[in-house]
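Severity: low
Component: inverse-folding endpoint
Summary: output formatting inconsistent between runs
Steps to reproduce: submit the following C-alpha cells with default settings.
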C-alpha cells in the first residue's frame, strides 16, 4: 500500500528445481499496449474482445512495456518516452476503459450501475489501480538479484517474426502507430524475453 517493494529473499526457490520461461515478455510488450487501447482478437474464429474488456484484466497492464525500454514514445519526437503509467494520460487520450465508445461494454459489465458517469468513474478507478499496480510490479521485477546457484532457469524465445517493438503516440489525438519492429515471436520481442 505504501509503494515500497517487497524484500527479495528467493525463499520460494527451495521448492523449485527448474523454471522454464516460454516467450515471456520480461520487459513488456508493445503489442499488449495496443491491445489495451484497441482490443484483441485471439484468433479469426473468436470474437474481438473490446478495450473495455481487456482493460478489466490487471495482468494486461502488467504486460505493458517497462519505462526503461523506451517502447512507447511521442510520435512527434521519438526521443521522448511517454509515461504510460499515468492514469491522467489514459483519461485525457481516452484510452482503454476511458474510451468514449466503450460505454455499451461497460453497461453490459456493470448492469446495476444506471448512469454513464458512474460507470466511467468505476472503470477509471479500476484502470488507475491497475496502472499503479503494474508500475509497482515492474519496479519489483527490476530489483537487481542473482538467483540461487541451484535454481535452473531456461528461457525459450522466438526471433523469426517481425514484432512491434516501438509505438509512437500522437499526444493530441491518442492515436498510436508502429515506429519500428524487431525480431521476436509476433507478440514478444527477443530483446524483451532476454
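Observed output (run 2 of 3):
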Amino acid at each position: 500500500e505504501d509503494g515500497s517493494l517487497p524484500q527479495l529473499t528467493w525463499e520460494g526457490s527451495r521448492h523449485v528445481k527448474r523454471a522454464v520461461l516460454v516467450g515471456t515478455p520480461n520487459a513488456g510488450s508493445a503489442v499488449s499496449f495496443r491491445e489495451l487501447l484497441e482490443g484483441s482478437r485471439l484468433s479469426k474464429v473468436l470474437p474481438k474482445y473490446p478495450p473495455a474488456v481487456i482493460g478489466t484484466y490487471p495482468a494486461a497492464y502488467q504486460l505493458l512495456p517497462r519505462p526503461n525500454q523506451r517502447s512507447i514514445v511521442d510520435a512527434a519526437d521519438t526521443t521522448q518516452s511517454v509515461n504510460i503509467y499515468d492514469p491522467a494520460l489514459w483519461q485525457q487520450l481516452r484510452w482503454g476503459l476511458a474510451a468514449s465508445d466503450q460505454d455499451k461494454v461497460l453497461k453490459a459489465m456493470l448492469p446495476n450501475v444506471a448512469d454513464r458517469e458512474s460507470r466511467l468513474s468505476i472503470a477509471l478507478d479500476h484502470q488507475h489501480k491497475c496502472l499503479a499496480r503494474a508500475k509497482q510490479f515492474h519496479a519489483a521485477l527490476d530489483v537487481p538479484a542473482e538467483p540461487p546457484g541451484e535454481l535452473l532457469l531456461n528461457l525459450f524465445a522466438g526471433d523469426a517474426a517481425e514484432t512491434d517493438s516501438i509505438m509512437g503516440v500522437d499526444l493530441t489525438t491518442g492515436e498510436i502507430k508502429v515506429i519500428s519492429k524487431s525480431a521476436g515471436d509476433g507478440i514478444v520481442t527477443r530483446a524483451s524475453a532476454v
